[in-house]
Amino acid sequence: MADAVDGMRDELASLGDQFRRRLLNDREVRRSVDGLLNELNHARKAAEGRITQPLLYDLILLVDRIEGQAAQDDALTRSVATELLTILERYGMTRVPFARGPFDPGTQEAVEVLTAPTPEQRGEVAELVRHGYRMDERLVRPQQVRVYTDR
Fold first, then answer.
1. What is the pLDDT of residues 52-103, one digit of tens each?
2. Which residues pair with residue 108 across a beta bridge?
């Protein structure tokens, strides 16, 4: 009887060890699969960006032209521009928010300089010429602005 109990105890210990090894193996497999899924998702997003970004950039140029025409107070033109902006946003393309203040070379491109009306306004953005756009966190096109300088 004692030999049978010892045998069962050994078998139970062996099964416990086998169970722990399988749990550890399952955790490793799960970690590996999660890592591969993350890499796949990153690669998919990168591929989508390479495919859709040129099209979205062309749509940005179209929005620029339409908004230039919308200045003539045409409701249809403004409506089309709004719809195109909605399409851009659906694919992750958003406008860089515009705010007057110091020129930011990280998000802005100076396309013209103007004489500052006051010394305090030197280096400040005078006005927006064209909107800037981001795709997710990456700057696709900087804002084009006029900047006050000494001249």
1. 778 888 888 888 888 877 666 678 888 888 888 998 888 888 999 998 899 9
2. 143
Give just the sign of the alpha carbon dihedral 15, 21, 25, 28: positive
Residue 127's CB is within 10 A of a number of other CB atoms, namely 12
pTM for this entry: 0.60
Residue 134: closest CA among 92, 101, 103: 92
What is the tens place of the pLDDT at every residue in 13-36? Answer: 888 889 889 988 888 889 888 898
Residues paired with residue 114 on neighbouring β-strands, in sequence order: 148
Q: Name the token pair of 89.
A: 């946003």
Kindly give the residue spans of alpha helices, DSSP state H, lying in the chain. Answer: 2-70, 75-90
105, 143 Cβ separation under 8 angstroms = no
CA distances from 5 to 1, 12, 16, 39 (A): 6, 10, 16, 51
Query: Do the Cβ atoms of 135 and 53 come closer than 8 Å?
Result: yes
Neighbour count for residue 116 (Cβ, 10 Å): 17
